[in-house]
């Protein structure tokens, strides 16, 4: 079952995170060495109420009924969020918290979060490399794609991946979240990118049909924040619905 989940996740990540920008050639090493700032809670909290400017004036923004659970305040947690929470988020109390994009993923009896070793197995990184990303040793601004969290449904293998895309390192510095999804779907028929209000912000959203047996149905939400594209990729198996998966992602309010 673990191997099957890993294969499904790996297939989804290859399609969702790599294929979209495969047309952009990598002509060599990346730009100048990046010095990672101190992404503490105070810094990332500042990003929480920053809405995407690319879609806020779109009259066709759709209001999403997904993830309608009550917000979580850090002061209400049994153990308050660590003061060294990085831009990648942090794992505490059986949940994943990400003040940068304003969300938390709850782990319970039906949905589980991958640990660093498991994330490494499906991303091709070592456990230490994943921890370096999570704990701020390596900045998401210095890598093309960063996987911040993976949650999966035990019974079916449906999953949610939270990742960051750095357009600058794909030589597309000004790419918006909507343009990212449009590029991702350009070779797939009947995929429409929409503007959706989700988690209290405006995301670009695209729904991808199941392309091959066992690959699952993908729905992606993307938003640009501080020169990064934050990507939420749901991959649904069997009869699982987006509503069911989204119930485990709610908005996080720090402070």
In short:
By secondary structure, the chain is of the alpha+beta class. The chain is built from six helices and 13 strands.
List the helices and strands and how they pair.
Layout: H1 2-18, H2 41-45, E1 62-63, E2 72-73, E3 90-92, E4 95-98, E5 103-106, E6 111-113, H3 116-123, H4 127-134, E7 145-153, E8 159-165, H5 177-184, E9 193-198, E10 201-208, E11 217-225, E12 228-236, H6 242-246, E13 249-253
Parallel strand pairs: 1-9, 2-13
Antiparallel strand pairs: 3-4, 4-5, 5-13, 6-7, 7-8, 8-12, 9-10, 10-11, 11-12
Helix pairs in contact: 1-3, 3-4
Tags for this entry?
255 residues; alpha+beta; five-stranded mixed beta sheet; 13 strands; 20% helix
Please give a structural write-up.
With 255 residues, the protein is an alpha+beta fold. It contains six helices and 13 strands. The strands form two sheets. Strands 1-9-10-11-12-8-7-6 form an eight-stranded mixed sheet. A five-stranded mixed sheet has the order 2-13-5-4-3, with no helix packed on it. The protein is globular and about 45 Å long.
Helix content: 10-25%
Going across the major beta sheet, what is the strand order?
1-9-10-11-12-8-7-6
Percent strand equals 25-35%
Query: Biggest sheet: strands, sense, closure?
Result: 8 strands, mixed
Find the structural class using helix and strand composition. alpha+beta
Tell the overall outline.
globular
- The number of distinct helices, counting runs of at least 4 residues, comes to 6
> Could you tell me the radius of gyration in angstroms?
17 Å
SSE pattern, N- to C-terminal? HHEEEEEEHHEEHEEEEHE
**Unreliable spans:** 14-57
Measured distance between first and last alpha carbons: 40 Å
């Amino acid at each position: 079952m673990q191997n099957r989940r890993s294969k499904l996740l790996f297939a989804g990540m290859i399609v969702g995170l790599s294929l979209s920008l495969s047309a952009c050639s990598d002509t060599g090493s990346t730009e100048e060495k990046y010095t990672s700032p101190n992404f503490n809670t105070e810094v990332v909290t500042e990003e929480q109420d920053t809405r995407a400017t690319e879609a806020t004036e779109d009259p066709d923004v759709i209001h999403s009924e997904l993830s309608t659970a009550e917000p979580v305040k850090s002061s209400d947690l049994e153990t308050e969020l660590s003061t060294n929470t990085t831009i990648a988020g942090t794992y505490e109390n059986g949940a994943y918290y990400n003040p940068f994009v304003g969300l938390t993923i709850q782990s319970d009896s039906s949905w589980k979060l991958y640990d660093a070793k498991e994330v490494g197995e499906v991303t091709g990184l070592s456990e230490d490399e994943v921890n370096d990303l999570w704990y701020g040793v390596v900045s998401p601004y210095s890598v093309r794609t960063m996987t911040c969290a993976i949650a999966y449904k035990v019974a079916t293998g449906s999953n949610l991946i939270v990742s960051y895309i750095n357009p600058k390192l794909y030589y597309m510095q000004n790419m918006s979240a909507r343009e990212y999804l449009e590029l991702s779907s350009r070779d797939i028929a009947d995929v429409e990118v929409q503007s959706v209000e989700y988690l209290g912000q405006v995301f670009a959203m695209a729904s991808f049909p199941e392309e091959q047996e066992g690959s699952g149905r993908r729905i992606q939400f993307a938003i640009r924040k501080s020169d990064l594209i934050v990507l939420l990729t749901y991959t649904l198996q069997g009869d699982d619905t987006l509503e069911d998966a989204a119930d485990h992602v709610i908005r996080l309010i720090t402070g």
